[in-house]
Amino acid sequence: MENWRLAVICAHLRPTPASKSSSPVSSSICGSSSENGETSSCVFCDIIRGQSPALKIYEDDICLCILDTHPLSHGHSLIIPKSHFSSLEVTPPPVVAAMCSKVPFISNAIMKATGCDSFNLLVNNGAAAGQVIFHTHIHIIPRKASDCLWTSEPAKTDLKAGPRRFAARRQCPETALVLEQP
Length: 182
Description:
Shape: globular
Strand order of the largest sheet: 1-2-3-5-4
Order of helices and strands: HHHEEEHHEEHHH
Oligomer: single chain
């Protein structure tokens, strides 16, 4: 069973011409209302209801895992609850537990499929934290050494340039530009 799921993930990450034309779409039904009873209209609910396409890599009764349409790295995936909850703090603990319990299995499969040896697990909870889609979700972002995905990680040139330039880059890109000018 695990080999089959790994093959499905690899097929999505390295699609063949035949698999590009037929994207798997979830056929599950998302809850029609949010945690406060309002009708929800979000892209994740549309995906869960099968009304929008998505590359599905895992699904069970509680959650769905899809590839991110705007990935930060190859294999960037999202674990989404099938019921609509706008943020982590209103998501029931059993749903959060079900989502988190899938992380080891899904992340291992993603790392094997992408050839990565690490990953970031990320939740943007609230607008100030960068949440864009207000439906609880967990990002699994595969990583490779020296990919410099985050500005807090030194690029190879930063390490050669010295700590002053790197420290400024971490604090504020505008400051880094000022310090880099001769």
